[in-house]
Design goal:
Elements (H helix, E strand, L loop, with lengths): L6 E2 L5 E3 L1 H7 L52 H20 L13 H15 L2 H17 L2 H25 L7 H4 L1 H27 L5 H28 L7 H36 L22 H14 L3 H8 L14 H5 L11 H16 L1 H20 L19 H9 L3 E8 L1 E5 L13 E4 L8 H15 L12 E2 L1 H11 L10 H13 L18 E6 L2 E16 L4 H20 L9 E3 L1 H35 L2 H24 L6 H27 L5 H30 L5 H32 L4
Antiparallel strand pairs: 1-2, 3-8, 3-9, 4-5, 6-8, 7-8
């Protein structure tokens, strides 16, 4: 206010007096002191009749279309959208710049929000470079080779162009969003895991067959073991994503196809490219050391090739090759690159028929063989009890996760682009808007492409809809009055009911035409067009009825032009941000009202129904949960079949699926603990969870079945020893990829990273503790 007590505009020009404000503001409130329906979207909910002061006000500006220089909204639509967005950014900067130290102004529009989201997605994507660097460094460390690390990363990267070719030209999917970019973090972990499995199999072959064995035989042994292990995990993970192709939500469906295809191609490239790289590494790089100036070293003597010691060993080796193969393998272990290390007797193995010395040099293999396995065996019964308690708590926690009650938030609340939405949610009672529609009978989507979300299909017109008879129009006026006066459904206030038909009937009376006059289809069309374009008699430049232009639809038919639909708007007493169950109850109320209205309506206007954008979100909420549960069930069934066929042991298949189910259940429970609700992020996460949950337990299960031992403890120990090192390495790289995801701004990326990290930890624990304990206790012998 200025010194004289008047309320001033920003530019210090008087706009309205304080006296007028004092007289007007009290009329905004109901008798109980709350804001009336007309002002709840405009004035903060902290204002009351006794204290009409608020920290927030809201203004809505409606923009027109088409823009200058364009003939229609469809004219060069993308170009027109870009022009509007460019103008909007300038408008936003100008308006928000009007704010001062004592107040803020924020501008929001869906186009600005989408543009901001795209910019943030691009900036967040920079974090993928950190993820790639981490995985590359760890692959080099684990394989002890820069060459293998680089070749492994190359095969992962090459999967993307090959997959894109199949995705666009074979599957004919044109839909590609920021969600698809997340597959990079996904495939980095999976690809690195495959590299580790193959490398570890090749290295372990030296301990089994002897370092002096022919490289073709060594590769044959490694290939059969690694390819099978990778095949079953890649298949189950890919199927987990392929299942989502049936999802009715296009982003999730397209992402499922994209991610599944990536996994398949990554596997194909791994079994085709990486064996050759291992051979090159073995022959050219494995025994070259920096301290020897990268000269090739004899693996058995440690001397540079060509020296006297190396030549003497070569002669000994040639003599060995002439012996019997069995003796050859036995003698080769004496010169094995893995120095035989006895870890001492294992009393559990001895109880099953004796024990043998473990031959291996890597610390993690020693740990799983000589420390972890005996510890699990000693604590197996207590571990099973604790596991059962954890699983029970997880089931209870998973049932507490509810569908999302509000629209999915993509940007954190602290971000300037999100603040207007936060203010709306917290300080304004934005009500539910319900539309009553006559004349439309659904949408024909038979000719709509699955991957063209902008093409919603062809509107199906109700051929019986007719506003020509006066009795039909009079009934619709009465319908608006009855519904508008229902205080249980509709807010009080002039702006709470918007029925163009009432204004049209008054227009006819003003033109000297009786409101109950009957018209033909063409005549009523002409009358409504005249009504919409009529100017204010006192101000010819103002067209008051143009506000109803979007509430009436027209179409050209063989018999001429006609009105094809009518829409009435009502502001509900309910809020638009409610959970599924609450919103569905409201939907049923409105449905019941329209069933009653249609039962007494005359022919031509007896097929009305209620609609609301919030109800579309309600259906989406339900679909998110249903599709996630359905996809989870199908994926688990496929995984069970694949695991059983891979291991040829139905008992192992059951154990594996139980572990996968436990991991998924625990992760859903963690979602509840994180304060999340079922939304798009969580629905995608469920598929991701199954994919990651299968990998590690299947690796260990296959190694258990393939063990040469016959007793369950020793088979479990063999499985942990052989695959534990690969599983841990894969977990580290996948977890590391997820860490970089939480460094961005977009919430979906953050959630995706948290899901990756949590699932990997759960999968590692349940497979190396839960599954191993089960097989040690009740695993199949023989």
């Amino acid at each position: 206010t200025s010194a004289d007590g008047s309320v001033c505009a920003y530019n210090d020009k008087q706009s309205v007096s304080a006296e007028t404000v004092s007289e007007t503001v009290p009329t905004w409130f109901e008798a109980d002191g709350s804001l009336s329906g007309d002002f709840t979207p405009l004035v903060g909910n902290d204002a009351t009749a006794s204290n009409p002061v608020t920290a927030f006000v809201r203004t809505t500006l409606r923009m027109g279309a088409p823009l200058e220089g364009y003939s229609s909204v469809e004219d060069r639509e993308d170009e027109q959208d870009d022009a509007f967005n460019e103008w909007s950014k300038g408008f936003q900067d100008f308006v928000e710049g009007l704010g001062g130290d004592t107040f803020e102004i924020r501008v929001f529009s869906t186009s600005l929000y989408s543009a901001t989201l795209s910019d943030l997605a691009f900036s967040d994507f920079v974090w993928v470079l950190g993820s790639i660097a981490f995985v590359l460094v760890y692959m080099c460390y684990h394989t002890t080779s820069i060459y293998l690390g680089l070749m492994g990363m190359l095969q992962i990267i090459l999967a993307f162009p090959l997959t894109f070719f199949i995705y666009r030209l074979i599957f004919r999917v044109s839909f590609f969003t920021n969600l698809h970019l997340l597959a990079i973090f996904l495939i980095l972990g999976i690809g690195a895991d495959d590299v580790f499995v193959f490398t570890d199999a090749f290295v372990q072959a030296g301990g089994v067959l002897g370092e002096s064995v022919d490289i073709a035989r060594r590769m044959s042994w490694s290939y059969r073991r690694a390819a099978k292990a990778m095949l079953i995990t890649s298949f189950t993970t890919a199927m987990a994503f392929f299942v989502t192709a049936a999802n009715r939500l296009i982003p999730i469906s397209a992402f499922g196809i994209w991610a599944a295809s990536l996994i398949v191609f990554q596997y194909v490239l791994c079994i085709l490219m990486f064996p050759a790289n291992l051979v090159v590494w073995q022959r050219q790089f494995r025994y070259r050391y920096w301290r020897k100036c990268l000269k090739k070293v004899d693996p058995f003597t440690g001397e540079v090739e060509g020296t006297e010691a190396a030549l003497e060993h070569q002669a000994t080796h040639m003599e060995m090759e002439s012996r019997d193969e069995t003796a050859d393998m036995h003698e080769a272990t004496k010169f094995c690159f893995f120095i035989p290390i006895s870890q001492g007797p294992d009393k559990y193995a001895e109880a099953e028929g004796g024990d043998e010395d473990f031959k291996g040099s890597r610390p993690l293999e020693k740990f799983y063989h000589s420390n972890w396995s005996p510890l699990l065996m000693r604590l197996r019964y207590g571990t099973i009890v604790v596991g059962a308690i954890i699983f029970g708590l997880a089931v209870w926690g998973a049932t507490l996760l509810e569908p999302l009650a509000t629209e999915e938030a993509w940007i954190p609340d602290w971000h300037p682009a999100q603040q207007p939405l936060v203010w709306e949610r917290e300080y304004f009672g934005l009500p539910l808007t319900v539309n009553i529609v006559h004349g439309l009978d659904g949408i024909d989507q038979s000719n709509v492409g699955q991957w063209t979300p902008d093409d919603i299909g062809d509107v199906i017109v109700d051929q019986n809809f007719d506003l020509g008879p006066g009795v039909n129009r009079e009934f619709l006026v009465q319908q608006c009055e009855e519904i508008g006066s229902n205080t249980e459904l509709v807010l009080s206030g002039e702006d709470s009911v918007q029925c163009w038909i009432s204004a049209f009937q008054e227009y006819l009376e003003a033109q000297g035409t009786a409101s109950d006059t009957d018209f033909s289809q063409q005549e009523i069309y002409d009358e409504v067009q005249a009504f919409l374009t009529a100017s204010d008699p006192e101000n010819p430049d103002v067209f008051p009825n143009s506000q109803y232009a979007r509430d009436v639809g027209f179409n050209q038919t063989e018999g001429g032009q006609r009105i094809i639909f009518s829409l009435f708007r009502f502001i509900s007493t309910e809020k638009d941000a409610l959970g599924y169950e609450q919103m569905f109850a409201i939907y049923e109320q409105w449905e019941a009202v329209m069933v009653d209205q249609n039962s007494k309506a005359p022919e031509g206007v007896n097929n009305g129904y209620p609609t609301s954008l919030s109800w579309l979100f309600m259906v989406t909420q339900k679909d998110l949960v249903d599709q996630a549960v359905r996809g989870l069930g199908i994926t688990l069934a496929v995984a069970f079949a694949a695991i059983t066929l891979s291991t040829f042991n139905i008992l192992i298949g059951f154990y594996c699926i139980f572990i996968v189910g436990a991991i998924v259940t625990c992760m859903i429970a963690f979602m509840y603990l994180y304060g999340w609700a079922w939304g798009i992020s969580e629905s995608v996460a469920v598929v991701l969870i199954v994919g990651f949950s299968v990998d590690y337990v299947v690796h260990i299960a296959n190694a258990y079945v393939e063990s040469a031992n016959t007793k369950r403890y020793r088979r479990t120990r063999d499985a942990l020893t052989e695959m534990g090192i690969s599983v841990c390495a894969g977990a580290i790289t996948t977890f590391g990829s997820g860490v970089f995801l939480i460094g961005g701004v977009i919430i979906f990326f953050d959630k995706f990273g948290i899901v990756m990290m949590t699932t990997i930890v759960l999968s590692l624990l349940w497979s190396t503790i839960g599954f191993a304990t089960i097989t040690m206790t009740v695993g199949p012998n023989g």
